[in-house]
Design goal:
Number of helices: 9
Structural class: mainly alpha
Low-confidence stretches: 1-8, 191-196
Strand content: under 5%
Largest sheet: none
Radius of gyration: 17 Å
Mean pLDDT: 87
Order of helices and strands: HHHHHHHHH
Length: about 200
């Protein structure tokens, strides 16, 4: 593993950062948009708060099992689960718009978003360490932090622009489509053995 990281470490770190960016952009955009959509649909402040709190249900209940899943089977399964969860989050609100069906779909989307980003975060934290050497580890985790900070800065602005000039559905389509960009990524196969 060390020899492979020495040869391809930079490229692998870029791939890990790309996974992080894609999923964080989806997660941040969904949180921001679901909040505005709920308010626009007439939800009370209590239900908007409860919906946002539901984002933490996945991490609260499944963080430890997710880590064990990663240790048992490698990162492919958790990353596939994260992609599927985020795509389901986007599609659930597209199929059942809050303005027509109420905010139940937003609750589902928020819960799936939190679950998906939890899976992503567990994997990228592990992979960032695995594709780094002791000399590059500090830089690798700094780059990871900067990636999420950039997403936190840019995603609400981009989501706001899409909502203002198109619709809420445009952001939900973004969350549905972006995970497909790295669905064929070979990062996991190169960084970790399948059974590690």
């Amino acid at each position: 593993l060390d020899a492979r990281v020495d040869v391809t470490g930079y490229g692998l770190r870029v791939k890990v950062l790309t996974i992080t960016l894609i999923m964080h952009v989806c997660s941040t955009g969904m949180r921001f948009t679901a909040t505005l959509d709920a308010i626009n649909s007439g939800a009370s402040t209590f239900w908007v708060g409860a919906m946002l709190a539901s984002i933490s249900l996945g991490p609260m209940c499944f963080a430890i099992p997710s880590g064990r899943w990663l240790d048992r089977g490698g990162p492919r399964g958790p990353l596939a689960g994260a992609r599927i969860g985020m795509m389901l989050a986007g599609s659930s609100v597209l199929l059942f718009p809050a303005a027509q069906y109420g905010i139940a779909s937003l609750f589902a989307a928020a819960t799936l978003t939190g679950f998906s980003f939890m899976l992503t975060n567990v994997v990228v934290q592990r992979l960032t360490g695995d594709v780094s050497t002791p000399k590059t580890r500090q830089l690798a985790f700094t780059a990871l932090s900067l990636t999420t900070a950039t997403s936190n800065l840019a995603s609400p602005v981009a989501a706001g622009y899409l909502i203002e000039h198109f619709s809420y559905a445009a952001v939900y389509m973004w969350a549905l489509g972006l995970p497909l960009l790295h669905i064929r990524s070979q990062t996991t196969a190169k960084v970790l053995p399948k059974n590690q």
